[in-house]
Amino acid sequence: MNKEKENIIKKYNEHAKFMADIAIAVLAGNKSVLEVNGVKEIIALYLLIPYITSDQLETPGEEYIVPKITENFSETITIRNLRNAICHSFVTTEEKSNDGSGHGDYLILDDRAIYNRNVHEKLTKKSGATCIGIDYTHKKLEEFFKQIIDT
After folding, report:
1. Nearest to 45 by CA among 73, 78, 86
2. 101-137: burial string, b at 16+ Cβ within 10 Å, e else
């Protein structure tokens, strides 16, 4: 196996372990896991999914209409591509290490966050990532959830 493939597998397994660690901590009632940079935003992204699905489940009646978020998440990330990245691949975060490596204050999304499904399928290398600032993400998520609350 070549070095690039080994690195991809290593990163994927690190992500899986990180997400499992978060889940176990939350299930055990360990609220301190929410202090890990980006964890609150990851959870909020997953909670946003029902409102960014283009073919949502039908609402139970006119009086229960919930808004569908349609605006772009950022200049390069559409809300649909963000949903696809969250639902079908991964979102994670990593802290900068002492040597300065790592992404630090960013969420790391699969490259589907910037490519629609057709474009992504045509890519020969499908192991890219998109980084978005945690502060930006936090503010944008607050805006979206306020829209939902105010409806």
Report:
1. 86
2. eebbbbbbbbbbbbbeeeebeeeeeeeebbebbbeeb
Backbone angles phi, psi at 107, to 5 degrees: -90, 145
Q: What mean pLDDT value characterizes the chain?
A: 80
Can you read off the two tokens belonging to residue 123? Answer: 């890519």
At 60, the pLDDT band (50, 70, 90 cuts) reads low
If residue 45 lies in a helix (H) or strand (E), which one and from where to where? helix 39-48
pLDDT at residue 101 in the model: 58
> Amino acid identity of 42?
I
- How far, in Å, CA of 93 to CA of 137, rounded? 12
